[in-house]
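User: I'm putting together a teaching handout on how sequence relates to shape, and I'd like one worked example. Could you take SURF1-like protein from Nocardiopsis coralli, show the sequence you're using, and then write out its predicted structure as tokens right after it?

Assistant: Happy to. First the sequence, then the structure tokens directly below it.
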Amino acid sequence: MLKVLFSSRMLAFHALVILAVPSFIWLGFWQLDRWETRSAQVNLQQDNVAAEAVPVEDLTSVGTDVASDDRWRTVEATGTWDTDNEVLLRNRDGSQGVGFHVLTPLVTDEGPALLVNRGWIERGEDAHDTPEPPAVPDGEVTVQGRLHYSENEDNTGLSNRDDLPEGQIMIVDVDELDERLPYDVYGGYAELTDQDPVPEHPPERVPLHEEDSGMSASYAVQWWVFAAVAVVGWIVLMRREVRDAREQEAAGGDGGEPGPGPADGTGGPDDGPSDSGADTPRAQATVE
């Protein structure tokens, strides 16, 4: 049995199983951890979206970014729109395809401005065209919006470029925009959900991108099933190898050479007539 189980072929299979099974188990726990993280994000989003609106200064301030636990909270601010410093966010999805999001500073009564994503508009003839955004109401307005932290290369994979047409940017990098503007800005930005008064032709509202826990939990179970299958297959193969070796050994023992005759050397009953018998016809003829 040991000779069979420690043959070169079986040693290679043992090594494969020893490497694969712990790896499958680790991948299962990794997927489970991803599922728990995503589920926590789902719960956080649902709770924050359902929470009551609060003044923007309660959750963010000048020179700071929005805390991850405050993302998606609804904030409220009152002020006037500054369309002179309005910019367009490129490559944003809407109901009619890829277009722009309109990012407009709302200069609040308290002094700092809140960057507000007013919504989606269609692009022009090509990507270099800068379409005219819809007009905003004159005078003081009160807005509500979902709060988001500043965008950067780490959390978007994108960065602003210097070769873009005037008035277009790639991401809402609050620190970079703060350097361009003639006033201070709150950390983060808001996706508009409501405003008073409502403009006649507002941009298309940005829908809530709902977080999803994904398939990580099922993937974790799949990896653990793979580990179990590998172990069961390993056991089945070892048992089969031992069984086949025993059957071959048994077959070799039964198929040996014929055994010797009786001890007096005269042969068995099926040996036929013996040349040494004196009473045979041939022997009698010789005597005569």
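A couple of points you could highlight for students: The chain has two domains: 2-46+216-245, 53-196. Strands lie at 54-55, 74-81, 87-94, 97-108, 113-122, 141-148, 168-169, 189-196.
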